[in-house]
Amino acid sequence: MNASDVIPFSVSWLQDALAITPPMKRKCIPPVHSNLYQILKHRLNVVLNGGGRDDLHLQTLIESPIGLSPWDGWLVLCLIRHRGRQQFLLENMRARLDGDPEVIARAGAMGHPDRPRVGLVPGDTDWEYRFHGRGCCMTHRVTGEDIDVDFHDETADWIGRYFFVKYLESLQRPTFVEKRICELYPSARSVNVGIDELFERGILEAGEYGASFRLAIPWEELCDLLDQIEWRWHQAGTQTLAAAAMSDWARLSEARADLADRADACLREKCDDLQQRFLAEQCSSDALTLLADLNAPNLEACLGHALKWPPSGVLSAAIDIVERKSLSNRWSTQLREIVNRVDPNGELPSPYIWNTALKLLIRLHPKGDLEKEFLRLNRNELSEAAMFAMEMKLPCAINLIRRSLRSVIPNNRIEMAAVLAIIDLPWCHDELACVLAETSDQEMTTECRTALLESRDVGVHAIVHNWEADNPYDEPDNESLTIGDLAKQRRDVIVQFEMQTLHDRIIILRDRFKPGAADE
To answer: Across 70-164, where does the E strand assignment appear?
Structure first.
C-alpha cells in the first residue's frame, strides 16, 4: 500500500458520492488452510503425472476447488518460482563472485566483495551482475531477465515488492507460471493487490525490512515440481490440468463451455473485492489499475471519483487509465478541473498529474489555446512538456526547450540535451551553444557539452573545446570529491542512455519539427 494513496477525507463521503451501498463491513478473508503446502504438492503432482489420463483427474480437481482465486493461486506459484531464482542468485554470488550475504546484510556497500561493482559473472557470462547497497542484481544479457535481491540475513528468503515488480516487467520469455501472472495482472504494479491478499491469508510473512516479505510455506519441493511441469507444458492435457489445479475458471472455460458461468462469477467476485479495496480506508491505486485492466463494470464509478482526489498515487493512476484507455473525451471536464486545481510546480506527483492532464486536453482540442498553460511549468516535467510541444508543433515549444536546457532540475537538462543530440541539426547546435555562451558554470553546462560532442558534425566539437579551454575544470581528488562532482562525471553516460531511450520517439521529429519564427 502506498502512503500517497491515503486521502484526507472520509470513506463514507466517497461511498455516498459513488452512490454505492456500502457493505456492512469488508468481506473477511479466511486464512488459508495450514496444509496449503500439502494441497499444492498433491495438485501439482496430479498435473505432472496426469498427462494422457487427464480426464481421470480433471473432474476431481474441478469439483474440489483450491480455495484461492486464480489471481492469488497463480501468484503463490510465481513467488515460489521467484524464491528459487533468488536462490540461484545467492549461490552464484557465493561461488562466482565471492559474495557473503550475511556480511552484505550487516555492512551494506562496505560488505561487497573485493571486485568491480559491475561486470560479467565469471564462468557464466550470459549473466551480468551489479552490487548495490545491501543487495545484488543479476541480469540475463539475452532475455533481459532481471533478478534483484536485498539481503537481510544469510538467506535469499526475503522478496522485495519493488524488485519483484521489476522482475515481472523484465520478462521477455516468461515461463508458464509468469506468463499466466502477466495475463492476470497486465500492469505489473497491480500484483501488489495480490501480495496484500496473501498477507491477509497468512501465506506471506512481513519482516522488519520495509517492503520485503517471505513465503510462510516450504518452497523447494514445490519449485522442483513446477520446473518439471515446465518441461512437460506442451504435452497433451497438462495445461488443462494446471488450470483445474489452480481453479482457474477463465482458462478452463476456454476448453469447457459449461464452466463459463463459474468464470463469470469468479471475475465478478474479484471486481467486487477490488472495489471494496478501493473504498477501504487506505485506498489502493493498484486496485484501481487492476479494475481497469479487467474492464470491470464498476470501473467508471470508481474512476470518476478518483479524478476528484487531491494529488496522490490514486489520482496519478486514474490519469494514466484515462490516457491508456483513450477516455479523454468522456472525462474532459474532470481533466480541466485538474489543470485548474493542481499546482504544476508542487510536490510530486503533482507536476506529472498536471502535465498529463494538460497533454490529454490539448490532444482533444489541438486548435485551442491551452498550450499557453505549459508556460506555468518551472520545475519537474518541463522537458516532457517541451517534447510534447515539439510533437504537436506548438508555438511554445522553443520557449520550453530553452527553459529545459537552463533548468535547475538535472533531469530536464539531461532529457532536452539528449533530444537535441538526437535531432542534431544546426538549430539544435545553436541552442546548445547559447547556453555555453551565457555561463561558465561547469555543472549547468555539462549536458549541453555532452550533446554537442555527440554531434556527427565534428566542427561543432570546437565550441565545447573552446569553452573548456576558457573555463578549465580542476578535478578534485577522491577525498574532496562531492556528490555534484560524481554526478557531473557520470552525466555523459546518462545523456547517452537517454538518447537510446528517447531515440524512436524523437528521431521522427528531425524533419517534422522546425523552430517557428515566433520566439515565445
So the answer is: 118-120, 127-132, 135-140, 146-150, 159-160
Among residues 223, 165, 163, the alpha carbon closest in space to that of 193 is found at 165
For the chain, helix, strand, coil in percent to 5 are 60, 5, 35
As a whole number of Å, the CA-based R_g of the chain is: 27
Q: Give the number of residues written for the chain.
A: 520
Which residue reads 472495489 in cell numbers?
Answer: 275
Decide the pairing of beta strands 135-140 and 118-120: unpaired
* CB-neighbour burial class of residue 270 (10 A; exposed 0-12, middle 13-18, buried 19+): buried
Nearest C-alpha neighbor of 420 from the set 446, 454, 393: 454
Rounded distance between C-alpha atoms, residue 106 and residue 111, angstroms: 7
> Does residue 122 sit in helix, strand or coil?
coil
**pLDDT in the model for residue 51:** 58
Mean pLDDT for the stretch of residues 54-58: 72
Of 218, 174, 211, 175, the residue nearest 196 (C-alpha): 211
Neighbours of 500 (CB within 10 A): 10
CB 181 within 8 A of CB 78: yes
What pLDDT score was predicted for residue 168? Answer: 97
Residue 3 vs residue 387, higher pLDDT: 387
Q: How far apart are CA 486 and CA 483, in angstroms?
A: 5
Q: What residue type is assigned to position 480 of the chain?
A: S
Q: What is the pTM of this model?
A: 0.84
Distances from the Cα of 57 to the Cα of 53, 89, 208, 472, angstroms: 7, 37, 43, 77
Residue among 313, 4, 20, 277 at smallest CA distance from 12:
20
pLDDT digits (tens, 9 = 90+) for 470-510: 998 877 666 655 655 665 666 788 999 999 999 999 999 99
Q: Enter the C-alpha cell of residue 66.
A: 483450491
Peptide bond into 349 cis (omega under 30): yes
- Judge contact between 495 and 414, C-beta under 8 A: yes
DSSP string, 450-505: HHHHT-S-GGGHHHHHHHHHHS---PPPGGG--HHHHHHHHHHHHHHHHHHHHHHH
Three cell numbers written together for 185: 495482472
SS3 147: strand
Whole-number Cα distances in Å, 135 to 34, 82, 141, 154 = 32, 16, 19, 12
Residue burial 191-228, b: 16+ Cβ < 10 Å; e: rest: bbbbbbbbeebbbbeeeebebbbbbbbebeebbebbee
